[in-house]
């Protein structure tokens, strides 16, 4: 089973649809990006927020794994559904991808779901930022 952030980065890179006029941003794990110059590029940064293992009492030798990953969308443009750039367009494309693969994640994970969304925009600094929390689950993993 691959790491949860690596799985999300792979899904986003493999399924990003540039034909809908949303330019592909820099998509990577947050610790692999040395600095973010949001004025020159848009970013989708992914990092692990929590990882839990629950050992089953009925089926000894198995466990359920739950990982919460944060997807940090950053742009210097707010955008809206009618524009081709900005944080709103990034969010819509990420949600489209996550919804399309929610039951067939692959990479050892059984399913995923978006559990929350936070707008962390700072208009005084012209930094438009939204964070999605995604839960990945693996059921009945042998240990």
Topology:
Blueprint: H1 4-15, E1 26-29, E2 43-55, E3 62-75, H2 87-100, E4 111-119, E5 128-142
Parallel strand pairs: 1-2
Antiparallel strand pairs: 2-3, 3-5, 4-5
Describe this structure in words.
The protein is built from 2 helices and 5 strands, in the order H-E-E-E-H-E-E. The chain has one domain (about 5-140): STM4215-like (2-Layer Sandwich), CATH 3.30.2000. The chain starts with a helix and ends with a strand. The chain has helices at about 5-15, 85-100, and strands at about 25-30, 45-55, 60-75, 110-120, 130-140. With about 140 residues, it is an alpha+beta fold. The protein is elongated.
> What would CATH call the homologous superfamily?
Phage tail protein-like
What portion of residues is helical? Answer: 10-25%
Molecular shape: elongated
Order of the strands making up the biggest sheet: 1-2-3-5-4
Q: Given the helix and strand composition, which structural class is it? A: alpha+beta
- Into how many domains do the coordinates divide? 1
| CATH domain class | Alpha Beta
The H-and-E topology, N to C, reads as: HEEEHEE
- Percent of residues in β-strands: 35-45%
Per CATH, the architecture is 2-Layer Sandwich
List keywords for this structure.
143 residues, alpha+beta, STM4215-like, five-stranded mixed β-sheet, 2 helices, 5 strands, 18% helix, elongated
């Amino acid at each position: 089973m691959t790491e949860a952030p690596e799985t999300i980065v792979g899904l986003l890179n493999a399924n990003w649809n540039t034909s809908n006029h949303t330019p592909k941003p820099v998509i990577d794990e947050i610790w692999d990006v040395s600095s973010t110059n949001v004025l020159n590029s848009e970013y989708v940064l992914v990092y692990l927020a929590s990882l839990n293992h629950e050992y089953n009492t009925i089926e000894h030798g198995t466990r359920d794994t739950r990982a919460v990953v944060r997807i940090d969308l950053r742009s210097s443009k707010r955008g809206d559904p009618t524009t081709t750039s900005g944080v709103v367009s990034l969010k819509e494309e990420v949600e489209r991808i996550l919804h399309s693969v929610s039951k067939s994640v692959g990479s050892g994970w059984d399913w995923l779901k978006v559990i929350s969304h936070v707008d962390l925009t700072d208009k005084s600094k012209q930094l438009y930022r939204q964070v999605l929390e995604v839960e990945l689950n693996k059921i009945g993993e042998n240990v």
